[in-house]
Amino acid sequence: MLLQNKVAIVTGGSRGIGYATVQAFLRQGARVALCASRQENADKAVAALKEEFPDADLLGIAPDLADYASVKAAFDKVEKTWGGIDILVNNAGVSDSTPFTAYTEEAFDRVLDLNVKGVYNCARAACDGMIARHSGVILNTSSMVSICGQPGGVAYPTSKFAVNGFTLSLARELGPQGIRVNAVAPGITETDMMRAVPKDVIEPLVAQIPLRRLGQPEDIANAFVFLASDLASYITGVTLSVDGMART
């Protein structure tokens, strides 16, 4: 098992890519603390996962990711329970399609607070223990729009460009402490939100993908497993595109 006895925290872990990542980590032997936006969602996800993995070590937590004190208290609980945090997956985020001229300051801040400040808060809360042990992995969810942008919802690609810069800079700073920092940039992935999009909208998008299919949450989760494992022990500061595209 690639992650045997490793302690992982996965934010946004109650559905979609985050849930698939929790599943993948459990299959590889990790102990996982699943973060959700509300405790009831975390508890529901943990109960479902316990049916699939009855012997798994699982916790459900629901800190306010935009509030450092809330994050630190939740992460301290994980460290007290399992002795440390080996892997952090910053997956929680919110997308947006608001036209630029329709933005309010509050709407723009809402996206940046979760997608950027939340990543900072979680990494900051986890890194002291990692530095003390001279070992750790921090993984961030970026997006294909951090590479190509998107027409509308400028806060979302702005936040993901920021995640890429955060990833690269933190990798350079924490590398000497034995900590690797990488990101995964998913393409169009078949989550619950995407399944609600009409077929006539999806088909032209799929036609532009060389592999001629949408990504599955498991595709992204497998990338996280690889980057979290010792198979990627000499990889840091990378934003890995998992989008079915071919680029030079």
TrEMBL record:
<dbReference type="Pfam" id="PF13561">
    <property type="entry name" value="adh_short_C2"/>
</dbReference>
<dbReference type="InterPro" id="IPR002347">
    <property type="entry name" value="SDR_fam"/>
</dbReference>
<dbReference type="InterPro" id="IPR057326">
    <property type="entry name" value="KR_dom"/>
</dbReference>
<dbReference type="GO" id="GO:0016616">
    <property type="term" value="F:oxidoreductase activity, acting on the CH-OH group of donors, NAD or NADP as acceptor"/>
</dbReference>
<comment type="similarity">
    <text>Belongs to the short-chain dehydrogenases/reductases (SDR) family.</text>
</comment>
<dbReference type="GO" id="GO:0008206">
    <property type="term" value="P:bile acid metabolic process"/>
</dbReference>
<keyword id="KW-0560">Oxidoreductase</keyword>
<feature type="domain" description="Ketoreductase">
    <location>
        <begin position="6"/>
        <end position="191"/>
    </location>
</feature>
<dbReference type="InterPro" id="IPR036291">
    <property type="entry name" value="NAD(P)-bd_dom_sf"/>
</dbReference>
<dbReference type="InterPro" id="IPR020904">
    <property type="entry name" value="Sc_DH/Rdtase_CS"/>
</dbReference>
<protein>
    <submittedName>
        <fullName>3-oxoacyl-ACP reductase FabG</fullName>
    </submittedName>
</protein>
